[in-house]
Amino acid sequence: MGEKEGEGPLGTLFDVVEPDPMFGKKNWEEAESALQKQTADLAIQKGRLQKSDIRYLLAGDLLGQLIATSFGTVDLEIPLFGLYGACSTMGEAISLGAMLTHAGYADQVLSMASSHFATAEKQFRFPLAYGNQRPFSATWTVTGCGAVVISRKAKKGMARITGITTGRMVDLGIKDSMNMGAAMAPAAYHTIEQNFEDFDIDETYYDKIFTGDLGEVGRTILLDFMKEKGRDLEKIHSDCGIEIFSQSAQDTHAGGSGCGCSATTLCAHILPKVQSGEWKRVLFVPTGALLSTVSFNEGQSIPGIAQAVMLEHIG
Can you give the pTM of this predicted structure? Predict the structure, then answer.
């Protein structure tokens, strides 16, 4: 994790907080690659495994051609599926990993996603030296990486993936790249509703529902959509982008974003509470805004997507 994230409300929960945003490298992109390598090694170590025990690596980031992932994981020598779901990538990686293990194609897989504030600003917005003013609807890209080992064998005291709901792209015509929450909230609403329909449940089934990085603006929109449907998520809904930063103390405006936002919040905050049994059932719904610099410059709208993963405590 980066230093800013370490100073936030979840700071004491992260395994490693790195004060150097360059991670000892000569450019931002190499820094994010180093972050991925460090996280993958730590996840394998904490799982008491060797690299050879991991059948597949499913990983992604926000950069063009997934260069943080491809350059960062080359030394792992693990077969790689490189994924791009924007900020929903961790949900995509976990969903596909769960399918691979459940179908018997792998005993263990590693699912991972990262982002870096400086690489994202450089690619999608303005050079850091420009010092542009950010609107209050904007979010702050998290410098961080999260990784989980998904195994076929259930262990007591761990979390079980009991279901997934694969999102579809939802586009309501939002074109403001500084208001990602508005672009992603309709997709989050659709995926959550689809989860309820597919599994014949409602919001009372879950102890918590976590969206990825809607931030303050997107959360308000999502809750309004749900109220129109007759659902009250106010007490059980949380957003990773809101949890990871202090809005009042850290000046991140609408909250956090980036692939690393939901990935690190899942690993440091959500999974430990599921594993301890404090939360028996959690719906993890990271969200993504599927724009690029090309599509934005061409004046196209921003499609959103959300991937839902059902997590349950193993007693």
Answer: 0.93
Per-residue pLDDT at 126: 62
pLDDT at 133: 65
Q: What percent of the chain has pLDDT over 70?
A: 95
Question: Exposed e or buried b for every residue in 49-78, given b needs 16+ CB within 10 A?
Answer: beeeebbbbbbbbbbeebbbbbbbbeebeb
Of 86, 96, 94, 102, nearest to 270 (Cα)? 94
Gap between the Cα atoms of 32 and 66, Å rounded: 11
Strand, coil or helix: what is 198?
A: helix
**CA dist., res. 173 & res. 168, Å (int):** 15
Beta strand pairing call for 108-115 and 56-60: parallel
56 residue type, one letter: Y
β-partners of residue 140 are 256
Sign of CA dihedral 246, 250, 256, 261: negative
Environment class of 243 (CB within 10 Å of its CB; exposed 0-12, middle 13-18, buried 19+) = buried
Using a 10 angstrom Cβ sphere, with 0-12 exposed, 13-18 middle and 19 or more buried, the burial of residue 187 is buried
Give 116-140 pLDDT, tens digit per residue.
988 888 777 666 655 566 655 667 7
pLDDT at 136: 56
Q: How far apart are the C-alpha atoms of 282 and 149, rounded to whole Å? A: 18
CA distance 207 to 289: 27
